[in-house]
Design goal:
single chain; alpha/beta; Inosine-uridine Nucleoside N-ribohydrolase, Chain A; eight-stranded mixed beta sheet; two-stranded antiparallel ribbon; 12 strands; 40% helix; binds alpha-D-ribofuranose; binds calcium ion
Length: 309
Amino acid sequence: MTPFLIDTDPGIDDALALLFAWNSPEIRVEAITTVAGNVSLDAASTNLLRLLALRRPDPRPVVAAGAAGPLARALTTATRYHGEDGLGDLPDWPAVGRLPRSPDAVAVILEAARRHRGDLTIVALGPLTNLALALKADAAVVGRVGRIVAMGGAIDVPGNVTPTAEFNMSVDPEAAHRVLAAGLPLEIVPLDATRQAVLPRAGMRATLARGPGPLASRIQGFSERGFRIAHSDGAQGMALHDPLAVGLAVDPSLGKWEAVRLAIGPDGETLRTSGPPNCRVAKVVESDRFIRLFLDRLCPATRPHGTSS
Ligand code: RIB
Ligand code: CA
Protein backbone atom coordinates (compact mmCIF):
# COMPACT_ATOMS: atom_id res chain seq x y z
CA MET A 1 0.00 0.00 0.00
CA THR A 2 1.22 3.45 -0.90
CA PRO A 3 1.59 5.86 2.07
CA PHE A 4 -0.42 9.06 1.58
CA LEU A 5 -0.35 12.40 3.35
CA ILE A 6 -3.45 14.52 2.65
CA ASP A 7 -3.40 18.30 3.21
CA THR A 8 -6.94 19.61 3.34
CA ASP A 9 -9.36 22.46 4.13
CA PRO A 10 -12.58 20.53 4.84
CA GLY A 11 -14.99 21.56 3.07
CA ILE A 12 -17.73 19.35 1.70
CA ASP A 13 -15.76 17.93 -1.21
CA ASP A 14 -12.68 17.51 0.98
CA ALA A 15 -14.80 15.39 3.35
CA LEU A 16 -15.98 13.22 0.46
CA ALA A 17 -12.37 12.91 -0.71
CA LEU A 18 -11.20 11.74 2.75
CA LEU A 19 -13.98 9.14 2.99
CA PHE A 20 -13.06 7.92 -0.51
CA ALA A 21 -9.37 7.72 0.44
CA TRP A 22 -10.10 5.84 3.66
CA ASN A 23 -11.89 3.12 1.69
CA SER A 24 -9.20 2.79 -0.97
CA PRO A 25 -7.20 -0.41 -0.33
CA GLU A 26 -4.31 0.64 -2.59
CA ILE A 27 -3.24 3.35 -0.15
CA ARG A 28 -2.67 3.99 3.56
CA VAL A 29 -3.56 7.50 4.77
CA GLU A 30 -0.68 7.97 7.21
CA ALA A 31 -1.18 11.65 7.98
CA ILE A 32 -3.67 14.45 7.45
CA THR A 33 -2.84 18.13 7.84
CA THR A 34 -5.28 21.03 7.85
CA VAL A 35 -4.97 24.42 6.20
CA ALA A 36 -7.17 27.54 6.10
CA GLY A 37 -9.09 27.79 2.85
CA ASN A 38 -12.75 26.92 2.50
CA VAL A 39 -13.08 27.86 6.15
CA SER A 40 -10.81 29.08 8.96
CA LEU A 41 -8.06 26.78 10.21
CA ASP A 42 -9.98 26.09 13.42
CA ALA A 43 -13.12 25.14 11.49
CA ALA A 44 -11.12 22.97 9.08
CA SER A 45 -9.46 21.21 12.01
CA THR A 46 -12.79 20.71 13.79
CA ASN A 47 -14.21 19.18 10.62
CA LEU A 48 -11.29 16.78 10.31
CA LEU A 49 -11.85 15.65 13.91
CA ARG A 50 -15.59 15.28 13.21
CA LEU A 51 -14.86 13.04 10.21
CA LEU A 52 -12.34 10.97 12.16
CA ALA A 53 -14.88 10.43 14.94
CA LEU A 54 -17.56 9.51 12.40
CA ARG A 55 -15.50 7.13 10.25
CA ARG A 56 -12.82 5.88 12.69
CA PRO A 57 -10.34 4.87 9.97
CA ASP A 58 -7.88 2.10 10.67
CA PRO A 59 -5.05 3.01 10.90
CA ARG A 60 -5.87 6.31 12.54
CA PRO A 61 -3.74 8.92 10.76
CA VAL A 62 -1.37 11.34 12.42
CA VAL A 63 -3.17 14.70 12.32
CA ALA A 64 -1.83 18.24 12.60
CA ALA A 65 -2.98 21.80 12.03
CA GLY A 66 -1.13 24.07 9.64
CA ALA A 67 -1.38 27.60 8.38
CA ALA A 68 -4.17 29.87 9.59
CA GLY A 69 -3.91 31.98 6.47
CA PRO A 70 -2.08 32.52 3.16
CA LEU A 71 1.59 33.49 3.02
CA ALA A 72 1.09 37.10 2.09
CA ARG A 73 -2.56 38.08 1.91
CA ALA A 74 -5.78 37.95 3.92
CA LEU A 75 -7.74 34.69 3.93
CA THR A 76 -10.73 34.44 1.59
CA THR A 77 -13.06 31.58 2.55
CA ALA A 78 -15.78 29.75 0.59
CA THR A 79 -18.49 29.54 3.24
CA ARG A 80 -21.22 30.52 0.74
CA TYR A 81 -20.76 27.05 -0.79
CA HIS A 82 -19.61 24.95 2.18
CA GLY A 83 -21.63 26.63 4.96
CA GLU A 84 -20.31 28.67 7.88
CA ASP A 85 -18.86 25.57 9.55
CA GLY A 86 -17.59 24.10 6.25
CA LEU A 87 -19.73 20.95 6.37
CA GLY A 88 -23.19 22.19 5.51
CA ASP A 89 -24.00 23.71 8.94
CA LEU A 90 -25.65 20.56 10.30
CA PRO A 91 -26.90 21.24 13.83
CA ASP A 92 -26.06 17.96 15.52
CA TRP A 93 -22.38 17.03 15.13
CA PRO A 94 -21.05 15.39 18.31
CA ALA A 95 -18.56 17.61 20.13
CA VAL A 96 -14.86 17.11 19.32
CA GLY A 97 -11.65 18.42 20.86
CA ARG A 98 -8.94 20.49 19.21
CA LEU A 99 -5.83 19.57 17.22
CA PRO A 100 -2.64 19.98 19.26
CA ARG A 101 -0.45 23.01 18.44
CA SER A 102 2.55 20.69 18.08
CA PRO A 103 3.59 18.94 15.97
CA ASP A 104 2.24 21.29 13.34
CA ALA A 105 1.57 20.50 9.68
CA VAL A 106 5.07 21.42 8.50
CA ALA A 107 6.68 19.08 11.05
CA VAL A 108 4.33 16.24 10.06
CA ILE A 109 4.90 16.80 6.32
CA LEU A 110 8.69 16.77 6.80
CA GLU A 111 8.56 13.70 9.05
CA ALA A 112 6.47 11.78 6.50
CA ALA A 113 8.82 12.84 3.69
CA ARG A 114 11.89 11.75 5.68
CA ARG A 115 10.29 8.41 6.59
CA HIS A 116 8.81 7.46 3.21
CA ARG A 117 10.86 9.47 0.67
CA GLY A 118 9.97 8.30 -2.87
CA ASP A 119 7.17 6.03 -1.62
CA LEU A 120 5.14 8.96 -0.28
CA THR A 121 2.30 10.62 -2.19
CA ILE A 122 1.18 14.01 -0.90
CA VAL A 123 -2.32 15.05 -1.96
CA ALA A 124 -3.10 18.76 -1.54
CA LEU A 125 -6.81 19.55 -1.48
CA GLY A 126 -6.67 23.18 -0.40
CA PRO A 127 -4.47 26.24 -0.80
CA LEU A 128 -0.78 25.29 -1.01
CA THR A 129 0.28 27.29 2.06
CA ASN A 130 1.43 24.31 4.17
CA LEU A 131 3.41 22.84 1.28
CA ALA A 132 5.11 26.18 0.64
CA LEU A 133 6.01 26.47 4.35
CA ALA A 134 7.40 22.92 4.33
CA LEU A 135 9.56 23.84 1.32
CA LYS A 136 10.81 26.92 3.20
CA ALA A 137 11.70 24.73 6.18
CA ASP A 138 13.50 21.98 4.22
CA ALA A 139 13.11 21.92 0.44
CA ALA A 140 15.54 19.01 0.05
CA VAL A 141 13.40 16.72 2.21
CA VAL A 142 10.15 17.71 0.48
CA GLY A 143 11.85 17.18 -2.88
CA ARG A 144 12.44 13.51 -2.05
CA VAL A 145 8.74 12.56 -2.09
CA GLY A 146 7.43 10.41 -4.92
CA ARG A 147 4.38 12.40 -6.06
CA ILE A 148 2.58 15.59 -5.13
CA VAL A 149 -0.99 15.71 -6.49
CA ALA A 150 -2.67 19.10 -6.03
CA MET A 151 -6.28 20.00 -6.81
CA GLY A 152 -6.27 23.50 -8.21
CA GLY A 153 -6.04 25.80 -11.18
CA ALA A 154 -8.01 26.44 -14.33
CA ILE A 155 -5.80 25.99 -17.39
CA ASP A 156 -8.01 26.13 -20.50
CA VAL A 157 -11.38 26.68 -18.77
CA PRO A 158 -12.90 29.55 -16.77
CA GLY A 159 -12.11 29.84 -13.10
CA ASN A 160 -14.58 29.52 -10.20
CA VAL A 161 -13.50 32.62 -8.28
CA THR A 162 -12.79 34.99 -11.16
CA PRO A 163 -13.16 34.25 -14.89
CA THR A 164 -9.52 33.12 -14.86
CA ALA A 165 -8.73 31.92 -11.30
CA GLU A 166 -9.64 28.78 -9.33
CA PHE A 167 -10.24 28.95 -5.56
CA ASN A 168 -7.23 27.03 -4.10
CA MET A 169 -4.75 28.91 -6.28
CA SER A 170 -6.50 32.25 -5.77
CA VAL A 171 -6.46 32.00 -1.95
CA ASP A 172 -2.64 31.74 -1.86
CA PRO A 173 -0.98 32.58 -5.20
CA GLU A 174 2.39 33.17 -3.48
CA ALA A 175 2.36 29.62 -2.10
CA ALA A 176 1.35 28.21 -5.49
CA HIS A 177 4.21 30.09 -7.14
CA ARG A 178 6.74 28.67 -4.67
CA VAL A 179 5.45 25.11 -5.12
CA LEU A 180 5.60 25.39 -8.92
CA ALA A 181 9.13 26.83 -8.75
CA ALA A 182 10.49 24.10 -6.47
CA GLY A 183 11.15 21.42 -9.10
CA LEU A 184 8.81 18.94 -7.40
CA PRO A 185 7.17 15.86 -8.98
CA LEU A 186 3.98 17.92 -9.21
CA GLU A 187 0.67 16.76 -10.71
CA ILE A 188 -2.09 19.34 -11.01
CA VAL A 189 -5.79 18.38 -11.07
CA PRO A 190 -7.49 21.55 -12.36
CA LEU A 191 -11.08 22.52 -13.03
CA ASP A 192 -10.44 21.36 -16.61
CA ALA A 193 -10.56 17.82 -15.18
CA THR A 194 -12.79 18.15 -12.13
CA ARG A 195 -15.67 19.65 -14.08
CA GLN A 196 -15.74 16.32 -15.98
CA ALA A 197 -16.46 14.56 -12.67
CA VAL A 198 -19.97 15.78 -11.89
CA LEU A 199 -22.04 13.62 -9.53
CA PRO A 200 -25.83 13.88 -9.92
CA ARG A 201 -27.77 14.13 -6.66
CA ALA A 202 -29.69 10.94 -7.56
CA GLY A 203 -26.42 9.00 -7.84
CA MET A 204 -25.40 10.00 -4.33
CA ARG A 205 -28.83 9.19 -2.92
CA ALA A 206 -28.95 5.74 -4.55
CA THR A 207 -25.48 4.89 -3.21
CA LEU A 208 -26.26 6.02 0.33
CA ALA A 209 -29.54 4.10 0.29
CA ARG A 210 -27.53 0.89 -0.21
CA GLY A 211 -25.67 1.32 3.08
CA PRO A 212 -28.04 3.01 5.54
CA GLY A 213 -26.59 4.02 8.91
CA PRO A 214 -24.92 6.91 10.74
CA LEU A 215 -22.21 7.38 8.09
CA ALA A 216 -24.67 7.44 5.17
CA SER A 217 -26.98 9.83 7.01
CA ARG A 218 -24.16 12.21 7.79
CA ILE A 219 -22.85 12.15 4.20
CA GLN A 220 -26.37 12.81 2.93
CA GLY A 221 -26.70 15.68 5.38
CA PHE A 222 -23.54 17.62 4.62
CA SER A 223 -23.43 16.87 0.87
CA GLU A 224 -26.99 18.11 0.36
CA ARG A 225 -25.80 21.70 0.66
CA GLY A 226 -23.28 21.11 -2.09
CA PHE A 227 -25.95 19.73 -4.40
CA ARG A 228 -28.34 22.57 -3.55
CA ILE A 229 -25.77 25.27 -4.34
CA ALA A 230 -24.63 23.45 -7.50
CA HIS A 231 -28.19 23.20 -8.79
CA SER A 232 -28.90 26.83 -7.91
CA ASP A 233 -25.84 27.70 -9.99
CA GLY A 234 -27.34 25.75 -12.91
CA ALA A 235 -25.09 22.67 -12.68
CA GLN A 236 -26.32 19.09 -13.24
CA GLY A 237 -24.73 17.93 -9.98
CA MET A 238 -21.74 18.38 -7.66
CA ALA A 239 -18.31 18.65 -9.26
CA LEU A 240 -16.12 16.23 -7.30
CA HIS A 241 -13.03 18.46 -7.24
CA ASP A 242 -11.14 16.96 -4.30
CA PRO A 243 -12.39 13.36 -4.69
CA LEU A 244 -11.02 13.38 -8.26
CA ALA A 245 -7.62 14.52 -7.00
CA VAL A 246 -7.60 11.52 -4.64
CA GLY A 247 -8.86 9.27 -7.46
CA LEU A 248 -6.05 10.34 -9.79
CA ALA A 249 -3.53 9.95 -6.98
CA VAL A 250 -4.79 6.39 -6.37
CA ASP A 251 -5.10 5.51 -10.08
CA PRO A 252 -3.38 7.93 -12.51
CA SER A 253 -4.78 5.92 -15.44
CA LEU A 254 -8.16 7.53 -14.74
CA GLY A 255 -6.81 10.60 -16.53
CA LYS A 256 -4.85 11.68 -19.56
CA TRP A 257 -2.01 13.98 -18.55
CA GLU A 258 -0.15 16.81 -20.28
CA ALA A 259 3.34 18.02 -19.32
CA VAL A 260 3.06 21.80 -18.95
CA ARG A 261 4.99 24.78 -17.69
CA LEU A 262 2.66 26.87 -15.57
CA ALA A 263 3.10 30.31 -14.07
CA ILE A 264 0.87 31.83 -11.39
CA GLY A 265 -0.77 35.19 -12.08
CA PRO A 266 -1.36 37.90 -9.46
CA ASP A 267 -4.83 36.59 -8.61
CA GLY A 268 -3.87 32.91 -8.73
CA GLU A 269 -4.39 32.42 -12.46
CA THR A 270 -2.64 29.28 -13.77
CA LEU A 271 -1.04 30.43 -17.00
CA ARG A 272 0.66 28.33 -19.67
CA THR A 273 4.14 29.71 -20.23
CA SER A 274 7.22 28.85 -22.28
CA GLY A 275 10.08 26.75 -20.99
CA PRO A 276 10.55 23.21 -19.65
CA PRO A 277 7.51 21.67 -17.92
CA ASN A 278 7.23 22.17 -14.14
CA CYS A 279 4.26 19.85 -13.67
CA ARG A 280 1.85 17.56 -15.43
CA VAL A 281 -1.82 18.48 -15.67
CA ALA A 282 -4.83 16.15 -15.80
CA LYS A 283 -6.81 17.14 -18.87
CA VAL A 284 -9.19 14.28 -19.78
CA VAL A 285 -10.86 12.03 -17.22
CA GLU A 286 -12.54 8.64 -17.56
CA SER A 287 -15.52 10.16 -15.74
CA ASP A 288 -17.82 7.13 -15.62
CA ARG A 289 -15.10 4.84 -14.30
CA PHE A 290 -14.08 7.41 -11.68
CA ILE A 291 -17.66 8.07 -10.51
CA ARG A 292 -18.26 4.33 -10.15
CA LEU A 293 -15.05 3.90 -8.15
CA PHE A 294 -15.93 6.88 -5.94
CA LEU A 295 -19.47 5.69 -5.22
CA ASP A 296 -18.32 2.11 -4.57
CA ARG A 297 -15.90 3.32 -1.92
CA LEU A 298 -17.61 6.36 -0.37
CA CYS A 299 -19.92 4.49 1.97
CA PRO A 300 -19.85 0.76 1.27
CA ALA A 301 -22.89 -1.28 2.23
CA THR A 302 -20.60 -3.57 4.21
CA ARG A 303 -18.62 -1.76 6.89
CA PRO A 304 -14.83 -2.00 6.46
CA HIS A 305 -12.93 -3.06 9.59
CA GLY A 306 -12.78 -0.44 12.33
CA THR A 307 -15.59 1.78 11.15
CA SER A 308 -18.81 2.86 12.82
CA SER A 309 -21.58 0.26 12.58
O1 RIB B 1 -11.89 25.01 -6.58
C1 RIB B 1 -12.21 23.84 -5.86
C2 RIB B 1 -11.37 23.73 -4.64
O2 RIB B 1 -11.68 24.81 -3.79
C3 RIB B 1 -11.68 22.46 -3.81
O3 RIB B 1 -10.53 22.05 -3.14
C4 RIB B 1 -12.72 22.93 -2.84
O4 RIB B 1 -12.67 22.20 -1.60
C5 RIB B 1 -12.30 24.35 -2.60
O5 RIB B 1 -11.33 24.34 -1.58
CA1 CA C 1 -10.54 21.66 -0.70
